[in-house]
Amino acid sequence: MSDKLDMTAMYAMHDALRRELEHLARVTARLDDPRNVLRTAVGWELFKKSLHVHHTAEDDALWPPLRQSLAKRPDELALLEAMEAEHAAVDQVIEAIDALPADPGSEFDRLGDLADSLVTGLTGHLKHEEDQALPLIQAFATPQQWAHFGQIHGQRIGPDAPRLLPWLLEGATEQTTAVMLAPLPEPARDAYTTKWQPAYAALDRWSPGTAA
User: Fold this and answer.
1) What is the pLDDT of residues 96-134, one digit of tens each?
2) Separation CA 85–CA 124 (nearest Å)
3) Which of 87, 104, 126, 211 could form an S-S bond across to 55 if both were Cys, CB 3.0 to 4.6 Å?
4) pTM beyond 0.90
């Protein structure tokens, strides 16, 4: 397999999503009402925003050019279809979770079941993508296509970068952090160090009432 494409950002996002799934599992296992946490905690909003940016960027800017390259390879095309189907399934579970807090009659067990489905479904999707889709991308995507995907991904983060970038890099290695910050202009790198990361570190993001 060629290593022509730098997958640092992809793996950083996957690691961050797995980290937050662990928080979600703990929150929804609490004996008190976890629906209030999901309704008002900034952690849930950051998770959803990051996941939405990541998956829609793949669906809109990564899979379509790959389909052109794989037009005569039905097995690989089926894999791309599976990626999009898994994205849609995860979205449906998140929508169902968000619908629960607005329903005072909803049962706590229902939230637990949905949270388990989200953890299982998204964890399985991330592994499926890493095991099969990322090698496919390395083999068939051009550097230009990969760069375009990165640009679209970055554009969709846009004004949320002061919160989403520290979220993404929480717990990341120094090497990963350096790779992710390198493309930023110097003022943005300075802002990350002096403002964005300290503000993020001060958040108790999985406590109720932290959403802004």
Assistant:
1) 998 886 666 666 678 888 999 999 999 999 999 999 999
2) 13
3) 87
4) yes
CA separation, residue 27 to residues 36, 112, 207 (Å): 10, 10, 9
Nearest Cα to Cα of residue 9 among 165, 204, 144: 165
**Mean pLDDT (whole number) for 49-54:** 97
Position 102 in a domain? yes
CATH code for the domain of 111: 1.20.120
| In-domain check, residue 211 | no
Instruction: List the domain range (segments joined by +) for residue 157.
Output: 8-201
Q: Is residue 2 part of a domain?
A: no
Please give the pLDDT value at position 192: 97
Q: For residues 166 and 151, what is the distance between their CA atoms, to the nearest angstrom?
A: 18
Rounded-to-integer distance, Cα 109 and Cα 129, Å: 30
